[in-house]
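Risk register update: the risk that structure generation would not scale has been downgraded. Supporting records follow, first protein first.
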Amino acid sequence: YRRLRAEETRLSEFNQTEIKAVLGSYTKVLFVRDPFHRLIATFLQGMGVSPSFSSFVREVLDGGMHNGSMAWKPLVSLCRPCLIQYDYVVMFGFLRQELGHLLRRAGLPAGSLLPELTDSQVQWTYRWLSEQMFSELSAQQKKELSHFYRWDLAAFPFSGSFLSD
């Protein structure tokens, strides 16, 4: 297909046959992260102008699905896991283990290419941050966030997510 070589052609610009050909020629890897952790990271990076996490969450919820930033939009709306058959789904928090497996499957020496990842420290830190940030939210905000991310929570195994409760 001629358009496959064009710069910055979006997948949505192709017809179904072309999309199938393009996707079939790649190994598709999806990196996923607990949506509540994504919200915390976005807030801590200063991507919201809110003075508190609670007011930042209010901005996210008020903006809705269509007006939100890619930093906090539900993954299902961005990555279309129901339409695209990903070869690998890599969960944040298990990067060292999963990336090692992925590199070995690609025939690459996993040990020498991976940076030092301390998954257990990251998980502990996010657990602590989640507890702190979650306690700032009203019961209504918690309910609305769980609803906002319901498809992500259904599609991916975020077993320890505060939004799953």
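Supporting record for the second protein:
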Amino acid sequence: YYLLRSNIGARLIQYLGGTAITIPPTNTATVLGLPPYYATIVLLATGSAAKQIYWATRISEQVLPPPFAIILAAYNTVLNSINTILSVWAWSSNSAPGGSSYSLTQGIGLLLYGTGLFTEWYCEVQRKRFKQDPRNQGKPYSGGLFGLATNINYGGYTLWRTGYAMYCASLPWAGVMVAWLAGDFCGRAIPSMEGYCQNK
């Protein structure tokens, strides 16, 4: 919100030699005082934070050490901030003039974001319910959404991160996000999880 409202994101783009979009004062009544396109970006960041906080406080049964929690929060903050800054760079922004109308890629981005966020959240809720039953102690969960894919939670994360990127900066940045997440999950996260499950 601060990056948009203070125009610090636009000033950063200009400092780096790019052409920034100046966010006009809005006549449209929004709670945040931003045009709808930019108000939605703030809501996307808020939704991603709310999902992560819910996971950490209500779903996860593992202790989250402070250094790991700081890294996780910083990682998500950096990605959200990059999306926000790209939304005010004239070369990458997915904003219509004045930020008042929506495009097809924005609509697809919102659909991917909503589907992915729900998928990541709900599959974890299903797994927690399964694990709360004492009869399932130590058993792997392969029902519900996890019946569709072993790592459906990573798939959900990839969907919403890609949708968020597409909404803010259209297809090129969404492609970079998909490539980054696929590489990270396939090279690090999934093999680590598979090893953990095999050891159990």
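The longest helix spans residues 152-199. On this basis the risk owner (M.S.) recommends closing the item.
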